[in-house]
Design goal:
113 residues, 3-stranded mixed sheet, 25% helix
């Protein structure tokens, strides 16, 4: 009978192999939803340009882009309105805007895309 290799039979914690959770750094106050889309974004585009970004919390790159755009809007003294659409949870909004991939940005001026 052969001797098993060293370490054979030892347990390995597989939980360390999971992807790290991506933290959403921007505030939830800029989150566009089906409920607030018309009032907080489209209607307000008569006052200031509105830029909406569709992102996914599963993609670190799109979360980083969301934070960057939120910071730029803040640095511009909110001369334009930024909104973020979570493509994973706002499926109706994604379908209505015909978004097929993330990241995706769209601007509204005077209620027109």
């Amino acid at each position: 009978m052969s001797i098993p290799p060293a370490g054979f039979g030892r347990a390995f914690d597989l939980s360390s192999l999971t992807k790290p959770k991506v933290e959403v750094g921007a505030s939830s106050s800029d989150e566009a939803t089906v409920e607030n889309f018309m009032t907080d974004y489209v209607a307000r585009s008569k006052e200031k340009p509105v830029v909406l970004l569709a992102y996914s919390p599963r993609s670190a790159a799109t979360v980083e882009l969301r934070q960057l755009m939120a910071n730029i809007a803040k640095e511009d003294n909110h001369s334009w309105i930024f909104g973020a659409i979570n493509a994973d949870t706002q499926v109706q909004l994604v379908q209505a805007l015909k978004i097929t991939a993330v990241p995706f940005a769209i601007a509204f001026i005077n209620e027109q895309p």
